[in-house]
Design brief:
four-stranded antiparallel sheet, single chain, globular, mainly beta, 11% helix, 2 helices, six-stranded antiparallel sheet
Length: 133
């Protein structure tokens, strides 16, 4: 196995897609995200998985169980399993981040160019047990 090795900051700040799955292991998944000004992921709860967010560029809020946490470049946030959460771009520029799901959330290799595509594909993009390698 090769794992995943790359400059994650460069990949994150160059990403223009709403969601792009970079690597899926048995227990962890790496996903890039870019939110346009005013855009949000949408409130959600993952009952069975923890989620880590790393903000590379932009300004926003990560809301966890009703508490708004202001974030910007170089911030990290962990959302524990079972917590209701949302990521909102409150800035004037794209909010660029990567997230780690443990265990994986999406099918390996999923790319959603925009939020509308992510919403359309929501019921068909859940992790199916297939990993990157």
């Amino acid at each position: 196995m090769k794992g995943y090795v790359d400059n994650i900051e460069t990949r994150t700040v160059e990403n223009e897609d709403f969601r792009r799955v970079l690597y899926t292991g048995k227990h962890l998944q790496l996903v890039l995200m870019t939110l346009k000004p005013g855009e949000e992921i949408g409130e959600e709860v993952h009952e069975d998985r923890d989620q880590f967010f790393r903000i590379e560029e932009g300004h926003g809020e990560i809301r966890i169980d009703g508490t708004a946490n202001v974030v910007e470049g170089d911030f990290a946030v962990i959302v524990p399993a079972g917590a209701r959460h949302n990521v909102v771009n409150t800035g004037k520029n794209p909010l660029r981040l990567y997230t780690l799901y443990g265990p994986p959330e999406h099918k390996d290799g999923v790319v959603h160019k925009d939020k509308a595509q992510a919403e359309r594909d929501h019921d068909s993009d859940h992790f199916d047990g297939r990993t990157t390698e």
